[in-house]
Design the sequence.
């Protein structure tokens, strides 16, 4: 049993004000694998006091010195690569090869984008001959990160916050806190001054709410569910904090008949199942033109049935369990709802995969003949479940179905016509649109429309979120 009850505050590992043990469970076995302590409002107070005391000096630290410390963090990240991967695999069930690659790899990838952005960012610029526009750090920021891509989201928040000259208090998910504790050790080893970075474990209703309400925190940056994001906004409203949110998604994936169908369907299904479907930008609604719809359904069935589910400790290209009992129950319930509402089950279904009698494993599942008013087309399932929806009315109908969602984080489309790809891509109401599987570069803006949140993470857009704009007008 791993015991990690302390918090990182003011450059030191400290005991909680009041012990409040919380077990961390291994999703592969359902057994407790670690124990942390959940913090309280008093622990948040201590962290905020440390962050406020450190802010003036850190904000005045030359940009080159802040950049050098981030470069040193990158070096430490490389040394601690395996520690991060093992923590992520244990806490949230990511297969170890996936944890070593995509999960841990997100940290250095985002750091690369932010270092480039720091060099390009307009920290100061002349507006007129007597006016200067100055970008200054917003102050003390509260950061709340999720369990599904823990290092990815910590990197997207902590790196730009400290790069901009802010000091911060991080609350990682209590479900998967182990990698965040390794991150705190890395910040310490890299040599960031005391109080610049602080970590308090805890749950949303206690520590998260205390942070949102705290008058000493100037800004909240939250990633998680739309429901919890609303709670952060309500808490922050009392002190008029700046709030940036990266929330849920129900991303469309339009497949036109002129696309490379085999490639489109294979990429769509495997992207949906990656990370066991626990990604906010997962392409969970495959909207397929009627002329190739049944062929696409058959292909999706074959791809889903070729995906293996396995132990996250074992090497290989498989998916692992869902993160928790609550998540397992939610996914199972929504699969049952899909069946009850009349969707055609073509792969997977309820229950654990064959050969598993424990662990929060789910079957890679594909539903066909889904209509956009069904529950499985409206709600973010956050599991390995794909909904396939036919369309026959051309681009207009495809776009209408795609945009008929309260979310707008990501969208995908496949077509052999470059003009159509550009035309349809511009009509999709989402923060990130990828055509024919095109990738995204380090430093791109990550975020969405509507109930998928506000603000953007990554690159210069991430730096902007953590700065205030001042106009300095001078006459002598």
Sequence:
């Amino acid at each position: 049993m791993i015991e990690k009850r302390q918090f990182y505050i003011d450059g030191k590992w400290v005991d909680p004000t009041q012990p409040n043990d919380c077990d961390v469970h291994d999703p592969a076995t359902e057994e407790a694998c670690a124990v942390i302590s959940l913090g309280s409002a008093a622990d948040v107070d201590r962290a905020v006091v440390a962050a406020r005391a450190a802010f003036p000096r850190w904000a005045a630290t030359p940009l080159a010195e802040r950049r050098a410390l981030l470069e040193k963090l990158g070096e430490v990240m490389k040394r601690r690569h395996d520690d991060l991967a093992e923590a992520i695999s244990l806490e949230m069930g990511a297969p170890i090869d996936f944890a070593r690659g995509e999960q841990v790899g997100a940290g250095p990838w985002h750091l690369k984008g932010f270092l480039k952005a720091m060099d390009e960012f307009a920290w100061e610029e002349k507006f007129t001959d007597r006016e200067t526009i100055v970008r200054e750090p917003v102050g003390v920021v509260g950061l709340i990160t999720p369990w599904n891509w823990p290092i990815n989201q910590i990197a997207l928040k902590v790196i730009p916050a400290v790069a901009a000259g802010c000091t911060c208090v991080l609350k990682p998910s209590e479900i998967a806190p182990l990698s965040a504790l390794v991150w705190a050790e890395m910040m310490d080893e890299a040599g960031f001054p005391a109080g610049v970075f602080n970590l308090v474990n805890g749950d949303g209703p206690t520590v998260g709410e205390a942070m949102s309400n705290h008058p000493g925190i100037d800004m909240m940056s939250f990633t998680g569910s739309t429901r919890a994001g609303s709670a952060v906004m309500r808490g922050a409203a009392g002190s008029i904090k700046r709030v940036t949110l990266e929330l849920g998604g129900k991303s469309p994936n339009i497949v036109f008949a002129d696309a490379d169908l085999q490639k489109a369907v294979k990429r769509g299904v495997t992207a949906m199942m990656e990370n066991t479907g626990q990604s906010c930008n997962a392409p969970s609604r495959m909207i397929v033109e009627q002329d190739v719809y049944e062929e696409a359904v058959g292909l999706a069935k074959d791809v889903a049935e070729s995906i293996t589910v396995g132990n996250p400790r074992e090497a290989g290209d498989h998916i692992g369990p869902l993160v928790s009992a609550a998540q397992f129950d939610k996914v199972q319930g929504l699969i049952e709802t899909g069946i009850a509402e009349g969707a055609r089950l073509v792969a997977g279904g309820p229950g654990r995969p064959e050969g598993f009698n424990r662990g929060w494993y789910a079957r890679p599942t594909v539903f066909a003949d889904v209509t956009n008013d069904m529950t499985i087309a409206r709600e973010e399932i956050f599991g390995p479940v794909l909904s396939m929806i036919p369309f026959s009315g051309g681009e207009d109908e495809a776009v209408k179905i795609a945009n008929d969602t309260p979310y707008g984080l990501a969208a995908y489309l496949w077509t052999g016509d470059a003009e159509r790809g550009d035309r349809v891509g511009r009509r999709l109401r989402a923060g990130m649109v990828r055509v024919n599987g095109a990738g995204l570069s380090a430093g791109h803006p990550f975020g969405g429309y509507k109930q998928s949140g506000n603000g953007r993470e990554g690159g210069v857009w991430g730096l902007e979120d953590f700065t205030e704009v001042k106009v300095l007008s001078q006459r002598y």
